[in-house]
Amino acid sequence: MSLEAQLNTDLKTAMKAHDKLTLNVVRMMKAALTNEKIKQGHDLTPDEELTVVSRELKQRKESLDEFQKGNRDDLVAGVKAEIAIVEKYAPKQLSADEITKIVTDSIAKVGATGMGDFGKVMGAVMPQVKGKADGSLVNQTVKAQLNK
């Protein structure tokens, strides 16, 4: 089932259940997909859909960080609930050990010797973990492995 079809199904379910939070999040996801579809000028590939889901998830996580820094506990719970809903549409995230293994393999593959090769390593790693790992976590892991 495509992401769009899944969102339509979940939209109907949320409407019937009078689940306003899920309804709003699903509508935002559908709008983001539609906007991306218009921007690209064609139906989205699964990879492009994944990019949109990742972007939506990242935006909510950044909002959560800002609300926590600003001591806005009234908004934190709502954003956490939104993140939980959006995560249903994202692929399973890789563990830190899995990311470390991918980074280590990529370092060996590109022949990286130090921080000067950071860009090469990131270029090799990111396509493998696209949508399955947080970019900042990958960045930290690459730096840690190159500094060994």
Cα-atom radius of gyration? 18 Å
Percent strand: under 5%
> Overall mean pLDDT score?
88
Question: What structural category characterises the helix and strand content?
Answer: mainly alpha
Specify the CATH class of the largest domain: Mainly Alpha
Task: Determine the N-to-C terminus distance.
Answer: 44 Å
Assembly category: single chain
Residues in helix, %: over 70%
Annotated CATH architecture of the largest domain: Orthogonal Bundle
Q: What is the 3D form?
A: globular
H/I helix tally: 7
Series of secondary-structure elements, N-terminal to C-terminal: HHHHHHH
Low-confidence stretches: none
Number of domains: 2
- Biggest sheet architecture: none
CATH topology of the largest domain: Hypothetical Protein Yqey, Chain: A, domain1
The CATH superfamily of the largest domain turns out to be: Uncharacterised protein YqeY/AIM41, N-terminal domain
Number of strands: 0
Organism: Levilactobacillus zymae
Protein name: Transamidase GatB domain protein
InterPro entries: Asn/Gln_tRNA_amidoTrase-B-like, GatB_Yqey_C_2, YqeY/Aim41, YqeY/Aim41_N
Q: How would you summarize the topology of this molecule?
A:
Blueprint: H1 3-17, H2 20-40, H3 46-69, H4 73-87, H5 96-110, H6 118-129, H7 135-146
Organism: Levilactobacillus zymae
Protein name: Transamidase GatB domain protein
Pfam families: YqeY
Give the structure's gist in a few sentences.
The chain has about 150 residues and is mainly α. The chain has helices spanning about 5-15, 20-40, 45-70, 75-85, 95-110, 120-130, 135-145.
